[in-house]
Design goal:
A hairpin with a 6-residue loop joins strand 8 and strand 9. The strands form five sheets. An eight-stranded parallel β-sheet has the order 4-16-15-14-11-10-6-5. Strands 1-2-3 form a three-stranded antiparallel β-sheet. It is α/β, with parallel strands linked by helices. It is globular. The protein is built from 13 helices and 18 strands. Helix 11 packs across helix 12. The structure holds zinc ion. Zinc ion binds next to helix 10 and helix 12.
Length: 377
Amino acid sequence: MKMKNFTIKETHGKARTGVMKTAQNEFETPVFLPVSTKAAAKYLSSKDLEKIGAKAIISNSFLLYLKPGMEVLKKQEIHEFMNYSGTVFTDCGGFQKLRSMFKGMSKKGIHFRSPYDGSKHVITPKKIINVQNTLGSNVAMSLDDCSPYGSSIEETKEAMERTHKWAKESLEEFSKLKDEGSKMQLFGICQGGFFEETRKKSCRFIDELTVNGTNFDGIAIGGLRIGEPAKLMNKMVKVSTEILTEEKPKYLMGVGNPADIITSVQEGVDVFDSIYPVENARHGNIFTTEGKIDIEKSKYQFDFKPLDPNCDCFVCQNYTRAYIHHLFKTDEPLAKMLAVYHNQYFMQRFMEKIRTAIKEGELDKMKERTVKQYKTP
Ligand SMILES: [Zn+2]
């Protein structure tokens, strides 16, 4: 009998709490995945990730395929390699189209040049599914073609059609792997740019797609938060979630601002990932229960309170704002380590609070407060 991968627990409007099960573990949703692109979260060890309660992370299969390479990952799969006990999601490399290593598209797949040694690579749907399976991914992504913000309707349609074709090829390969006993799950990625028509079409297609009796275990909403205003992103999330099946987990890729997260949770999104908390921490922007603070401001020079007096993380228990202000001012590597640890811990607690708020029917109130504190243009 097929194990149920996702169970919805409580709902409040369209928001829901749930439990997602993978071959590795199970965890509650809505969940935030710390980004560990190359099998490492920036400034955090895998043991730190476990300590802050991160039961799932996301890594990038294409970048891991380049380095350390499959010869290493065949011998030791990712959990063992980085010594992490939680679920590993892996992205497929489609997003790297927006990066400088991208060299072009063909019918076959996406062409890249390795940033490490200049070698040429073609990523095809079939190839990247197998890479993800071999490296031990628990939740893989099907290869997508992400159109940049500002693309025309024609360009968007072309990328969408390619994404759909690749989704079919991915499911075909995935059904074979499942027959061979693979326990990996596969999410399909919807694209469709910033036009309602194409977004809807893509969500419907990916949601309904079945090949050899196999369909996607979850649906990822891709191609958002790539330069568009928050309002437009929220609209696209709403358009997408209205179409997607209730029963499957919905994953909004690349979104990590607390205001965006809670707004999307209200639309029924279950999974998030983003470098946002890390990027903020690196620049001294600390997330607190009272909003964001810039620890480099001179007013913190004599502030001997913790970063967030309401936080019980290792950093807030041991260090003051004045000390961390000093570390930033003197460019000590420890500054970023402590700031990242706190922000990532904050995100895990923030998701816990969201889950509690859904259970207790308090999500609207929490949203109002969060949007006030964390809203971005
Ligand atoms: Zn803290």
